[in-house]
Design brief:
141 residues; 3-stranded antiparallel sheet; DNA-binding; homodimer; Arc Repressor Mutant, subunit A; mainly alpha
Chain lengths: 141, 141
DNA sequence: TAAGAATAGATTGCACACAATCTTTTTGCT
DNA sequence: AGCAAAAAGATTGTGTGCAATCTATTCTTA
């Protein structure tokens, strides 16, 4: 029996998993300046774009469920970046609303993407290819 | 000011992070049959290959530190797949030794890689390219 | 060779992820 | 209208990740 397929070096999932963590680590110094975790940061990215959104919709953007999001959203509310407002039409729904403070935070975050690009060695072709492959996998759910 | 770079769809890190979790999710049904988590699985992959290894060396393979590994290794020891043995020459070092039971587990795991391939839609060229890009980033530490 | 530095792992504390379950509210059906 | 099913979030419990710190041991070097 050949066990080569079980070797770590022959896996595709493993470098994906390791690389994901590695890139998140490289965000940390920049996010520390804003006192945001990575999960809080990507949540704020959606908030900056949507202004108002339900937890459900947010979860679709981030591929996360309420079990993960609820505590994250409570922290962001405590920091004053969002408000959590029960929807009046449908009582099951929680609307998330970007606050003025949350909007201001965007100004401080606006330089992060380009700083990350400097920390991750990828030419544009590879970046595009990577993007394409990753979304191809994600879209196959 | 242009805020496009802060949009989620324009990030490369985010699909990497989401895709990593998605692929790990696709492992779950197969790993559940072996009663292994993904972290325990990749740890066992190293053990199956190395038979004996220190925690330090294992951590280099997996890009994980003792804070993460210690509890994982204790669980694998409880399940009988590895032994944790203090090194006699250097008392600081902990050797991990694959047990017979651990070796047997490999037989049950041997089909997992090919089953995952079926669950992740990637042709060989893209798989190779993805592999190359990911290790390029990982190696830039 | 004795003390300080370095190293290997363990521990602690915090923040996710995610499955499973629970609560509240709304929908759909008859 | 009345009730079962479905939906949206919250809660609970387990298992990572990882920074910071602690302990035990070994190395270094004055």
């Amino acid at each position: 029996m050949n066990y080569d397929k079980l070797k770590l070096k022959n896996q595709l999932c493993f470098p994906l998993y390791a690389c994901s963590k590695e890139v998140v680590r490289r965000y940390k110094p920049f996010l520390d300046e804003l006192d945001l975790t990575y999960t809080q940061y990507i949540t704020m990215m959606v908030m900056w774009e949507q202004k108002i959104i339900t937890v459900k919709e947010l979860g679709k953007f981030l591929y996360l469920d309420s079990g993960t999001l609820t505590p994250v959203l409570m922290k962001l509310e405590n920091k004053g970046y969002i408000e959590r407002i029960k929807n009046r039409i449908d009582g099951r729904v929680l609307d998330l609303k970007l606050t003025h403070t949350g909007e201001e935070l965007m100004e401080k975050a606006v330089n992060i993407p380009e700083q990350i690009v400097k920390c991750v060695p990828l030419d544009e072709a590879d970046a595009n290819k990577l993007y394409e492959i990753l979304y191809h996998i994600l879209d196959s759910r």
